[in-house]
Write a structure and sequence with these properties.
Layout lengths: L1 E4 L14 H9 L3 E5 L10 H7 L2 E3 L2 H6 L3 E3 L6 H4 L7 E4 L7 H10 L2 E4 L14 H18 L21 E5 L3 H13 L2 E6 L2 H10 L4 E5 L2 H7 L5 E4 L25 E4 L20 E4 L2 E4 L9 H22 L1 H7 L1 H4 L2 E4 L2 E2 L2 H6 L8
Parallel strand pairs: 1-2, 1-4, 2-3, 4-5, 5-6, 7-8, 7-10, 8-9, 10-11, 11-13
Antiparallel strand pairs: 6-14, 12-13, 14-15
Helix pairs in contact: 1-2, 6-7, 10-11
Length: 366
């Protein structure tokens, strides 16, 4: 099979779909790999690294799409790429369809095989291809939140860890999944007082067992959220519904209950956000302010640390890429139920229930 690695063209996206090590494994399995010139530079991988691994370097993104049976990316295709995708071509990437009707309709029109990293699901319900980026984003959420709590960027002027004689900052984490736990871990490491809310008592018991005593757990409901937002300095949105739009746990009217300069980092922005006032931002222009509350809603947070993110992503995607290349998508998905759950749009039809429900359509099979 021919596998193409295009350069990401989303705003400030420096990750790349595969490391030279991944290319080496594909070539070793007798596949042809095309890499767009400069695709890996933002992550610290250069054309000669890919050539030494056995890839062929192509000059343009159009050539990569035109010559490849399968495209391996990081982020969803943007409008400039829609017409490059071919009928029957496999596109393996993060799609987050539920947050974009335009993307969904474009991929339906393309008649491509759209396999989403974020819905590949193991038997235990875990999401192996989403986990590493959730780990990165959860940890970054605290770094970014701490920065935007500074007064020069209109934050509250709070140092999360405090100093002797001054209480530490307070962090509220919505969701005890991978993002939430990693965020809580980082915030706790800085010395902040952390509260983590979830509806899953098993997850809360797990958090209670592994976290230090200054991380406390609570059940997530509107009453408790309204109570906690009044006293916390930094709020992390880490809620995920597999393949579906995130619920709005914080509504517009709740902003008036927050102290001016409170910071919200909505990591769920890829799935529409768990804050009603969330709208996607970029690393170039990461924040906006509503009712004196700072919103950080960058839709590709791990793109700011591309080396770490690219290596972590290739570690988990490569086995699936090899299956798809060795067997073809039909056989690979038939033999691997985890990979089959990654099928979102196939040959012009939505095949993932939650995405179909988001747009009030019927899935072809669920």
């Amino acid at each position: 099979m021919t596998v193409g690695i295009p350069k990401e063209i989303k705003n400030n996206e420096s990750r790349v779909g595969m490391t030279p090590a991944g290319v080496f494994e594909l070539v070793k399995n007798n596949h042809t790999v095309y890499v767009q010139s400069g695709a890996g530079e933002g992550s610290g991988f250069f054309n000669q690294d890919y050539q030494q691994a056995g890839a062929t370097i192509l000059d343009t993104i159009g050539q990569v799409y035109a010559m490849s049976d399968m495209i391996v990316k990081v982020k969803e295709p943007i409008a400039e790429e829609y017409n490059l995708i071919q009928d029957g071509q496999i596109v393996f990437t993060y799609f987050h369809f539920a947050s974009s009707e335009a993307l969904t309709k474009a991929m339906i029109r393309s008649k491509a095989i759209c396999i989403a990293y974020e819905t590949v699901e193991d038997e235990d319900g875990s999401l192996p291809l989403l986990t590493p980026m959730s780990e990165v984003a959860g940890r970054m959420a605290i770094q970014q939140g701490a920065k935007y709590l500074e007064k020069p960027v209109r934050g509250k002027g709070v140092l999360l860890g405090g100093v002797p004689g001054v209480s530490p900052g307070r962090v509220l984490v919505l969701g005890a999944g991978t993002v939430g736990i990693q965020a809580a871990k980082m915030a706790a490491g800085l010395g902040a007082q952390v509260t983590i809310l979830d509806v899953n008592m098993k997850r809360l018991r797990y958090v209670n067992d592994i976290m230090p005593s200054h991380v406390v757990t609570g059940f997530s409901n509107e009453f408790n959220i309204r109570k906690h937002i009044k006293t916390n300095d930094l709020i992390i949105g880490g809620v995920l519904l597999k393949g579906a739009k995130a619920p709005n746990l914080i509504t517009r009217d709740m902003l008036k209950d927050m102290h001016p300069g409170t910071v919200i980092v909505d990591v769920a922005v890829d799935q529409g956000g768990c804050v009603e006032t969330t709208k996607p931002t970029t690393h170039e222009d990461p924040i906006y302010i509503i009712d004196d509350v700072v919103h950080y809603c960058v839709a590709n947070m791990p793109g700011a640390v591309p080396y770490t993110s690219t290596v972590a992503l290739t570690n988990v995607t490569l086995p699936y890429v090899l299956k798809l290349a060795n067997l073809g998508w039909r056989s690979a998905c038939k033999l691997d139920r985890s990979l089959e759950k990654g099928l979102n749009v196939v040959e012009g039809e939505i095949v993932y229930k939650e995405i179909a429900e988001t747009f009030h359509l019927e899935p072809v099979f669920a």
